[in-house]
Amino acid sequence: MLLKSILKRFSKANLLTILCFGLILNSLYGQSLAKKNFVVVLDAGHGGHDSGNRGNGYYEKNISLKIALGIGKILDKHDDIKVIYTRKSDKFVKLVDRAKIANKADADLFISIHCDAFTSSRAFGAGTFVLGLHANQRNFEIAKRENSVIFYEEDYEKNYDGFDPNNPESVISLTLMQETYSNQSIEAAATIQKSFVANLGRKDRTVKQAGFVVLKYTYMPSVLVETGFLTNKKEGSYLNSQKGQNEMSKAIAKAILNYQKELQKGVVGQQVFEEKVVSQETSNRIAKGNNDIFFKVQLAASKKPIEAKSYNFKGLKNVIRQKEGAYYKYYFGSSKSYKSIQKEQRKAKRAGFKSAFIVSFKGNQKIKLSEALDALN
Known about the structure:
alpha/beta; Aminopeptidase; Alpha-Beta Plaits; 5-stranded antiparallel beta sheet; 14 helices
């Protein structure tokens, strides 16, 4: 009845204006909810006066660039993917600047392309690496070779806080920041590794961890790919050929697309998990009072514990770590005011935690956010 009374007060012209305005608002709202592009930063290793390894006379810098450009060409065909390169020509780019490019772009995935080398010419196969403590001398040697690029920079001691590629102990300091993204990095690396095996029949060298400087400073899931050994005559020839470069580009691009799809599924699954429906008993307890309802901002989750120190969380202070099932959850801020916790969420996002979200608790129990807000209202 109230709606009919209101409608009678408007002329047809007014109603038409309101209808058009509503359609415009609906369109704008739809655009605001539109999924943002999945941003991939492709980093062709080495470049310029840094040739990379020269196994069998091949140039790592040239091969990595051609493969990176090939990947980008394939991904560019997808409207929901935005590709950014750290270099598109034969030029030298500092390792720290490669990371800055990715961070500035607010990338969803960082892929650094390289070619491997070994003292034995029999070593072959493609491998993927994520940032972590090297498990053996071989992984350390690979990281040391790739990290030695910093010696081409006049101000490397300032850029990398005194990091010494030749000192195994220096690697420990590299791993803290990327721990937030370690699970997704491993998933991305595993997807690429599977693609090499399934699509190209390459030897499975598995996903490994090592202390790569180029991965330390990125604030997103990051993977370093060693596409094969130039020191192996057959494999070097393959990687230096257009056929080999095209096949490697297709395999990596396909893996990135698969990772994107799986990530989207995982995000949806996480939201469902975090906001699972509470039991009727819990709902009744919420309805009885709201004195012990409060909110926090979840920054990240990991299977390995990370010290809840500000230097591990981009300067954010008072981060709390809490074990929940198989995962450690990291929370920032705590308030009984939803408006106040929204301010903390914005602060977390400005610090770089773009996917930070609000969770609600009643006492020690996590509850559905909508239930908490209903109780407060």
